Model the fold of this input.
Amino acid sequence: MGNVIPFELGAIAVRADVPPHMDDYGRILLIGAFSDLVQLRDSATNEYSRKQADAIVKQIGRVLARYEPEGAA
Done:
């Protein structure tokens, strides 16, 4: 299957010998989705929707921070 990532929680293993990495295209796609979600959160009309979107924004933010290039802070 090549580079397919399994999404079954039991099938996912974290390897300590392989540093976290993401290609540039994946990073651009994730940043674009993050930006769209932030705009959606900021324009939400009710508090429940805003809190739901904010939780997802924070999760994606942690993913982006994990794969941030060295020295880019």
